[in-house]
Amino acid sequence: MALEETDEARPAPSPSAAAESAPGPHQTPRPVERATFPQRIDYGEDPAQYGWLRWPAHPAGGPARLPIVVLIHGGFWSEPWDYRLMTEMSERLLAEGYGSFNIEFRRVGGRGGWPGTFDDVSAAIAHLRILAQEHPIDLDRVVVAGHSSGGHLALWAVGAAGAHADVLRPARAVGIAAVTDLDAFSAAVTFLGGTRSAVPERWAFAEPSLDPAVVELVHGADDDIVPLDTVTNATAAGVGVTVLPAADHFDVIDPGPTLDQVVKAVIGAVEATRTPG
After folding, report:
1. Which of 41, 158, 234, 274 is least surrounded by CB atoms within 10 angstroms?
2. Distances from the Cα of 162 to the Cα of 111, 206, 266, angstroms
3. What is the pTM of this model?
4. Which own/partner pairs from 28-31 qualify as long-range (CB within 8 Å, at least 24 positions apart)?
């Protein structure tokens, strides 16, 4: 990574160091440094409610507003898996000139699950409205991309269930080795706090969008954690699936040529949000 992501605050300079760096009476004041990235952004008060913003440098005269990709990690909605699963992808996107917000959120085992995880994903996306006051983010060109259970959350966020009044609805979603069929995974019972028959309203709320107009999938042919045959409900709905030969569940997010193909697909989704003309 170009800059280490860390939760530790940068120490303030000592008074003597500050005095040494201050311009003297005949010195030209140093220009104010621009924010360095990745930049930790808290979107809520809980320790797990934050994300890492990476933003590309663009020359003057460039686009007034730029798209952004919200990245959601997997781990079957549970701890200890965290945002670091998506760090490499955010770096690759940055190298291609695309900004990203790699979010953390409450998970099962840490005050997450129902309804906290959904609340956090919604709040993180809604927080882009605040970030857009500081950075030239095009709120009409927000794409959400998630891996594994994060793919489920990405598809949920782009759907009607994620479109609350106070939430910014993404324009498109990319599910990477995504969970599209909650019934195929026993972890969903723990995540939602009961079986479909016990808490049917929660399961109905949690259903991911399978709208082919705004959803696309990328999946490894050799994935044995979220097998390819679990996305047949998505293909039956007409959702496009890019199948990557000889790729497993983690090849799609780990450094390597497979990740290059995934990043290409995410960028394609971003470019599809461009207004014609």
Report:
1. 274
2. 20, 9, 20
3. 0.86
4. none
The shares of helix, strand and coil residues in the chain, as percent rounded to the nearest 5, are 30, 20, 50
| Residue of 244, 173, 264 whose CA lies nearest to 214 | 173
Residue with tokens 């910014």: 168
- Residues 6 or more apart whose CB falls under 8 angstroms from that of 242 comprise 216, 217, 218, 219, 261, 265
* pLDDT above 80 for 167: no
- CA-CA-CA-CA dihedral for 185, 191, 196, 197, to nearest 10: 130
CA–CA separation, 171 vs 159, rounded Å? 10
Q: Which structure tokens are listed for 165? A: 């009044």
Owner of token pair 């497979």? 258
Cα–Cα distance for residue pair 111/190, rounded to 1 Å: 13
Is residue 22 predicted with pLDDT exceeding 50? no
Domains of the chain, each with CATH number or no CATH: 44-56+64-271 (3.40.50.1820)
Distance CA 124, CA 102 (A): 10
Q: What is the mean pLDDT of residues 163-167?
A: 58
Q: Hey, how many other C-beta atoms are within 10 angstroms of the C-beta on 125?
A: 24
Distances (CA, A) of 51 to 3, 86, 264: 15, 11, 23
Q: Which helix (H) or strand (E) segment is 154 a member of?
A: helix 149-158
Amino acid identity of residue 124, one-letter, is: A
Question: Per-residue pLDDT tens for 106-147?
Answer: 999 988 999 999 999 999 999 999 999 989 999 999 999 999
